[in-house]
């Protein structure tokens, strides 16, 4: 007789599929599942709000009346720091769940950190979890990697412009 998903000894909240569903539905992580257009709007929205902190700091260093280009470059870079931290949190969260789903074994804790156990997934669970990784999580991780690459390109362009001005 083959083991089914219901024979899983892992507590419900520690099962990789449930961790995935919880992450996908959480307010912070669900934005990564939006269409590219809506995702991009959210990224720019967060970056724009980061200017509330970055703008005054940049203005103190480079008064906009005297050094408008340095002010814009400095403020843009500073506003991106918050965005990078958020993107790192998103990437690490999705990466963790991807690893838990992709692994043929699941480490779990029964009642605390001192009594960890390992459960070997049956083949049907491994197949299901790997399909989720391939079709749901990998595109999200690729989207975040593209976002990081775009930010790195913007930093590079900003640095070049800074030295040319």
Automatic annotation (TrEMBL):
Domain of life where this protein originates: Bacteria
Transmembrane segments: 43-62, 68-92, 146-164
Cross-referenced InterPro entries: CGLD27-like (IPR009631)
Pfam families, A to Z: CGLD27-like
Keywords noted in UniProt: Membrane, Transmembrane, Transmembrane helix
Entry keyword annotation includes Glycoprotein: no
UniProt name for this protein: Ycf36 protein
Lineage: Bacteria, Bacillati, Cyanobacteriota, Cyanophyceae, Nostocales
């Amino acid at each position: 007789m083959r083991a089914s998903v219901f024979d899983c000894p892992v507590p419900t909240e520690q099962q990789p599929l449930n961790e995935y569903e919880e992450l996908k539905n959480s307010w912070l992580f669900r934005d990564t599942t939006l269409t590219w257009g809506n995702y991009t709007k959210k990224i720019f929205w967060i970056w724009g709000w980061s200017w509330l902190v970055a703008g005054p700091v940049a203005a103190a260093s480079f008064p906009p009346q005297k050094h408008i280009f340095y002010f814009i470059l400095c403020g843009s870079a500073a506003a991106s720091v918050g965005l990078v931290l958020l993107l790192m949190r998103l990437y690490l969260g999705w990466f963790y769940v991807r690893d838990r789903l992709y692994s043929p074994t699941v480490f779990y804790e029964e009642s605390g950190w001192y009594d960890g156990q390992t459960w070997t997934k049956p083949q049907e669970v491994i197949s299901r979890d790997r399909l989720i990784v391939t079709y749901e999580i990998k595109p999200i991780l690729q989207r975040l990697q593209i976002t990081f690459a775009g930010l790195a390109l913007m930093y590079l362009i900003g640095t070049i412009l800074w030295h040319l001005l």
